[in-house]
Amino acid sequence: MSLLITVPVHSQNSESTMGASGYPLPRFMTLVNDKTNMRTGPGLEYPIDWIYLKEDYPLKVVAEYGNWRKVEDVDGSTGWILRSLLSLKRYGVIQNGTQNLYKSADNRRQIVVAAEQDVLGTINQCAENWCEMEVGGFTGWINTENIWGALSQENFD
Prior knowledge:
Blueprint: E1 17-18, E2 24-25, E3 27-31, E4 36-39, E5 48-52, E6 58-65, E7 68-72, E8 78-82, E9 86-87, E10 91-94, E11 99-102, E12 111-115, E13 120-127, E14 130-135, E15 138-143, E16 147-148
């Protein structure tokens, strides 16, 4: 039996390819449960390499094989997680120290809230390197370079 895995093509402008699921690669998904096993390969017969203990934690999907998704976490660790343990809901983790969330992507003079490193928030929409996030009951805009959970140039609402 051969193992055929869809591998994303990385480029400077973050172009993506389509996975067998019909969704682009790479893309972000989040953990459904507060305890999830990441395995060394795409199957239950592969050993558990890592256990995530955080529901809604964002992971970058970089490849697909059947019902399995090869993921990468914020620290660069990679492994395989069953598709049913991942959600299309969008969450992000604040990176690069404390970051300001602004009233809008165009109005960066009005700070809504300052979010600390590693804080988890909901991503509502993204456009042109900026994402609207909800963190601790506050909603504001943040550049994609300062969150783990969205790709640069990603657009969605």
